[in-house]
Write a structure and sequence with these properties.
The protein is α/β, with parallel strands linked by helices and 254 residues long. It is built from 8 helices and 15 strands. It has one domain: Spore Coat Polysaccharide Biosynthesis Protein SpsA, Chain A, CATH 3.90.550. The strands form 5 sheets. A 7-stranded mixed beta sheet has the order 7-4-1-8-13-10-14. Strand 2 and strand 3 form a beta hairpin.
């Protein structure tokens, strides 16, 4: 089963970092965000990826082209122009990198990879991490027999909340769950019929396609209460980085 990763957006809300590289290539620890996402899927046996490139897509291509060297010890014979790799270590991944346009909307990017996927495939954004069990989502999708399944999550609150009686603070909750409204967690399982809902390359995935799927009762929600966190801002990047460096990263299921 293929895993499609949307990795072509401009990342304007974290532009201080994305001016030089696409958001999925921003590092957590010493590895880019897209690597962390792929490791989650790989843990559940999904190793065939299709990456929708756009903004500075060449950075993503260069990373995977040189991945073998990134992960191995090497001896470089400058005179002979030879490279000898030691302690070789590489992921069992097949990665198809597709140019989907510099400013193409999300729906258009998905439409452009139609020829690279099968009857059922996974889709996710290149900027969100989760402790989700991908196999369980796929199992749910197949059982429900609808065109699309979306991970429905409760986002973490940004601020501490106060439970007040009069002027007395009864309870304080640091970064509590949101207002109990579930949102699009960005992890999907899709049937090939999804392409019938994407009219052209100007389609925005989060609007007409998903809205029409819901109207046709073809969009199922996999409710998830575990860890989910998107990297939208520099603040988010620092938060995820701290989790990783303290060995408390919930998405590290491998």
């Amino acid at each position: 089963m293929k895993v499609v990763i949307l990795a072509g957006g401009l990342g304007t809300r974290i532009s201080e970092e994305t001016i030089l590289k696409p958001k999925p290539m921003l590092e957590i620890g010493s590895m880019p965000l897209i690597w962390h996402i792929m490791k989650i899927y790989s843990h559940y046996g999904l190793n065939d990826f299709v990456v929708c490139c756009g903004h500075k897509g060449h950075v993503i291509k260069e990373f995977f082209f040189n991945y073998y060297l990134h992960t191995a010890d090497v001896t470089i014979d400058v005179k002979e122009n030879k490279i000898i790799a030691h302690k070789k270590k590489a992921e069992p991944w097949k990665v198809t990198l597709v140019n989907t346009g510099e400013s193409t909307p999300t729906g258009g990017r998905i439409k452009r990879i139609k020829d690279y996927v099968g009857d059922i495939f996974c889709l996710t954004y290149g900027d969100g991490l989760s402790s989700i069990n991908i196999k369980e989502v796929i199992k749910f999708h197949k059982k429900r027999k609808k065109i699309a399944t979306v991970l429905a999550v409760k986002p973490q609150g940004r601020f501490g909340s106060l439970n007040i009686k009069g002027t007395n603070v009864k309870n304080f909750f640091e970064k509590p769950p949101g207002d109990n409204v579930r949102v699009n967690g960005g992890f999907f399982v899709l049937n090939r019929k999804i392409f019938d809902y994407i009219k052209d390359n100007n389609a925005i995935w989060e609007k007409e396609p998903l809205e029409n799927l819901a109207k046709d009762k073809q969009l199922e929600a996999y409710k998830f209460n575990g860890f989910w966190y998107p990297m939208d801002t520099l603040r988010d990047k620092i938060y995820l980085e701290n989790l990783w460096l303290s060995n408390k990263a919930p998405w590290k299921v491998w």
